[in-house]
């Protein structure tokens, strides 16, 4: 799956599941205040397609059909609602799988040319394509680059190969020790003549060959380096730096969430007569909410494990003298910015697109202006938006109260720290419990794989002294 395929997939699935996609989009907008994008809708279409095939197989068997009862006949709507009300897309890439053991995909970015601090074959990006070392890549993609050559006290002549063609008037030559301190310096004029302290030489701008002759090596050591900084004229170069995508895969196995509840058939009849609705509808709604909470908990635990890649960012809640609590808590934004900088420096992906907060993080965000709507659900749930960033709350059995997870989740399937790969959508079955046929049972099952992909897209913030 790649982002560019989303419009094509969406067009295909919209013809097959247009009603369910509309239901899901409306439910998502009601729950989260925004419509689903093309990638999210295309993933849901794939999800619905997988379940539609599974449902037809189940309904072809008389025993399964009798046990399923009436609800699975509208189960595509249930699938859509479960997906739409689960804030997984804020935190994870959704890649539905067609079998219990499936495959998720990611990519590496590999250099095709040796240049600067990068060698041909080096991995330029992590599994999502994010840039792993911005400084090294600046010397790879930009004209400004450098060459380092070990100094040898037994030699007074050096031929150093620069990337041709070399732009005149851009060459700087230095001899430095292992601390970076400069021992010798030289310049090159427009004709290619080298003038340095204790050395001379010439450069061929077209071939890139730099020749140096040392007339004075006093004070120099074998641990020193000859460093040449220069601009390659990329506009006139025969080859320019580039990269290629290498698609990789990872096998995953779906794990099941199964919940069962029971109720009396007499209660069902009474509620139907009194309120015009079946108790089973409320039961199913509750079950879906609990399954969503369980799935979200798994995603958050994987995110928490991913944050061990970085040193955590700490924010001290201790009030400085003469500063109010509200004023000081506004400095929490600085901690968020530090977390964003860590993601940016390692991946090239700037910004935070989602937050997961424990109890203390929830208090801090509320005190600095975030509107929080109470939710009558157990487990993790969507809390609201802070400065346009979606925030998910996690109770202490999922995330420590003093921890906040800052997450970057890009707009396509590949820019994500975690993959959520649903296999079996929420499937509802009904039957009797025990010898008393008046006692009814409703059960729901959901199977999905959750796996970490790009650890560098998540940073942990710890709130201290609160």
Number of helices: 11
CATH topology of the largest domain: phage-related protein like fold
Strands ordered across the widest β-sheet: 3-10-5-6-7-8-9-4
Low-confidence runs of at least 5 consecutive residues:
62-74, 126-132, 274-279
Overall geometry: elongated
The major sheet is characterized as:
8 strands, antiparallel
* First-to-last CA distance: 44 Å
Radius of gyration: 30 Å
CATH class of the largest domain: Alpha Beta
User: Can you tell me the CATH architecture of the largest domain?
Assistant: Alpha-Beta Complex
Q: Average pLDDT across residues? A: 79
Strand content: 25-35%
Classify the secondary structure makeup into a structural class. alpha+beta
The total strand number stands at 20
Task: Determine the fraction of residues in helical runs and give it as a percent range.
Answer: 25-40%
List keywords for this structure.
466 residues, eight-stranded antiparallel beta sheet, 2 domains, single chain, 30% strand, Immunoglobulin-like, phage-related protein like fold, six-stranded mixed beta sheet, alpha+beta
Helices, strands, pairings?
Elements: H1 6-32, H2 38-59, H3 62-68, H4 75-84, H5 88-91, E1 93-94, E2 101-111, H6 134-141, E3 144-150, E4 157-161, E5 172-176, E6 182-188, E7 193-196, E8 199-203, E9 209-214, E10 225-231, E11 243-253, E12 255-264, H7 265-275, H8 279-306, E13 313-316, H9 325-329, H10 332-347, E14 354-357, H11 359-367, E15 381-386, E16 389-393, E17 403-407, E18 418-432, E19 439-452, E20 458-464
Parallel strand pairs: 1-18, 13-20, 14-16
Antiparallel strand pairs: 2-11, 3-10, 4-9, 5-6, 5-10, 6-7, 7-8, 8-9, 12-19, 14-17, 15-16, 17-20, 18-19
